[in-house]
Specification:
By secondary structure, this protein is mainly alpha-helical. The chain is built from 25 helices and no strands.
């Protein structure tokens, strides 16, 4: 027995120190097996909790702590967080937009407006992906929708399959970064920060990525015009715009603006939101005049541009203007998607039933993963996993910047194998506290003075946390495109013409992944890209 005790003692001491590392390694191995993520997270957390209790590292009440973290009392648990209500609303909005033909009308008018520019069709897809990203954060739906709409047309007009597929895949996944984004909602909940700040902070980085795509396509089309030809005049079939309808629309818009100005000046603005009423009046006028115009340039603009702009203003504009919280804005967006489907004549009971069903399934999947991640992070913290990571970093003697580069590199490499949900729910709870402890070192780069007191230190940590979250979000943009498990590539291949080979899709995304890395470097070098707009809106 003494021999067994002597043999077991060093093993016991080793496990007491490093059981958190084995827990993290076990989760990584489970994810590589292809086992469902939610079950992997819950299973690893449960097994290691029971093992730790058996070894007297933990007490049985730790299970109650897990339940407390998930459900809580009096609405204090994670799943009771009102921010998470935005997730099913945004899922509903994105799914409903698939049925409303908004993207089809938008692509049509963009092709006409950019017809004289080399690579105009690819540029149209980029602009459409950017606009649609600001109306829905459902990446799978966006990829499938834009592939079905744009890829056959691009191939028929002589576009390189690599350029066509790369443009569609990159543009379709902008919704993971440009708000409203489900990923940003989850990040805000995990980091206990304002989702409104994250929404606004992600706008400029998202537009930077879109601008890089736009610039690359223009240069590529100029150097290799045969691979990205301009749209032929014969492909454009539009009738002349009626001058009477132009005058009618602008008269209605001017009357609405004048009425809003008069309402505000009269002092009735406290009880009536005159700017919102004016906006709604202009939207209704645009839809009415657009239907009167039919197949003309004005009709295309009113029917193609106005609906997505309407939804963007309803969701993001209501947040920026202070009319609604992000959670309330999500509900407004879901209602706006129903309105657009009704206007376009696609709102039926069958469509509504299908949208609700898919929303329920997607939301259940996300929340199941979220519950599993909460259980994992709770047990991981109780077995001192976070302390182990901090000690490892101290042992490696990595400075703040080398550590940040290592984290960004690790997230990029994980994107080759894991989905953004898995990376977000595993990485953020573990590494965000580490980055927060290094906030004073990053403060000068963010243009902040050294913290003189506790309040100033908390403000610095908050700014560094927002910057880090946006960096992670930009980095995770690549996870949808990088093989072998780039989900956007599989979505695209599933609905692309059979003539498009997987090798061409892989070849097409390489330049766009490089552009995403450049975008990440820009946000690293210029933190104002992520922090300037929130400072204006929430100063």
């Amino acid at each position: 027995m003494e021999f067994l005790a002597e043999f077991w003692a060093p093993i016991y001491d080793h496990l007491y120190v490093y059981i958190g590392a084995y827990m993290f390694l076990a989760l990584a191995l489970m994810l590589f097996t292809g086992f469902p993520v939610a079950f992997a997270l819950c299973g690893v957390a449960t097994v290691f909790a029971l093992w730790s209790i058996h070894l007297d590292f933990l007490d049985w009440p730790v299970f109650y702590q897990v339940v407390q973290r998930i459900w809580g009392d009096s609405g204090s648990g994670a799943v009771h967080n009102s921010i998470l209500v935005a997730i099913p609303c945004f899922v509903f909005m994105g799914t409903m937009l698939e049925k409303s033909r908004v993207a089809e009308d938008l692509l049509h008018i963009l092709q006409i407006m950019l017809r004289r520019i080399p690579g105009g069709l690819a540029l149209s897809v980029t602009v459409m992906g950017t606009i649609m990203a600001a109306t829905t954060g459902i990446i799978g739906a966006s990829v499938v929708m834009i592939t079905l709409l744009a890829l056959p047309t691009m191939l028929a007009r002589g576009y390189s399959p690599a350029l066509a597929t790369g443009t569609i895949a990159a543009s379709s996944t902008l919704g993971i970064l440009i708000p409203p984004s489900i990923m940003l909602v989850l990040m805000a909940n995990l980091l206990a920060v304002s989702v409104g700040n994250l929404f606004i902070g992600a706008i400029l980085p998202g537009l930077v990525l879109s601008g890089l795509y736009f610039l690359y396509i223009m240069v590529y089309a100029a150097l290799r015009p045969s691979k990205a030809p301009t749209i032929r005049k014969a492909d454009i079939d539009m009738e002349p715009t009626g001058r009477g309808n132009i005058a009618l629309f602008f008269a209605i818009a001017a009357a609405a603006v004048a009425a809003a100005w008069a309402g505000v000046a009269s002092g009735l603005g406290e009880t009536i939101n005159w700017p919102l009423l004016a906006f709604l009046a202009v939207f209704v006028a645009a839809m009415w005049v657009g239907k009167r115009e039919g197949n003309t340039l004005l009709g295309g603009i009113l029917k193609g541009f106005v609906p997505p702009i309407f939804l963007i203003v309803m969701v993001l504009g209501s947040i920026f203007a202070g009319w609604a919280t992000p959670t309330e804005a999500a509900g407004v967006g879901a209602f706006g998607a129903i309105v657009l489907a009704r206007i376009n004549g696609t709102l039926t009971m069958e469509v509504l039933r299908a949208v609700v069903h898919r929303t329920a399934l997607t939301t259940a999947l996300i929340f199941f993963i979220f519950v599993g991640a909460t259980a994992f992070s709770t047990i991981f913290r109780n077995v001192y996993g976070e302390d182990l990571i901090i000690e490892l970093i101290e042992w490696l003697e990595l400075g703040p910047w080398p550590l940040l580069f290592v984290l960004m590199g690790a997230i990029f490499l994980m994107g080759f194998f894991f989905d953004f949900l898995e990376i977000t729910l595993i990485i953020l709870p573990v590494f965000a506290p580490v980055i927060q402890t290094l906030a004073p070192a990053f403060a000068p780069h963010l243009g902040m003075e050294p913290a003189a007191n506790q309040a100033a230190l908390q403000a610095t940590q908050a700014q560094v946390t927002y910057w880090f979250a946006i960096l992670v979000a930009v980095n995770l943009q690549t996870s949808f495109l990088t093989p072998p498990f780039g989900f956007a590539l599989f979505y695209m291949k599933g609905v692309a013409p059979s003539a498009v080979k997987m090798q061409e899709i892989y070849l097409g995304i390489i330049p766009f992944v490089i552009l995403q890395i450049i975008g990440l470097a820009l946000v690293l070098e210029f933190p104002a890209l992520a922090l300037y707009l929130p400072s204006l809106v929430f100063e």
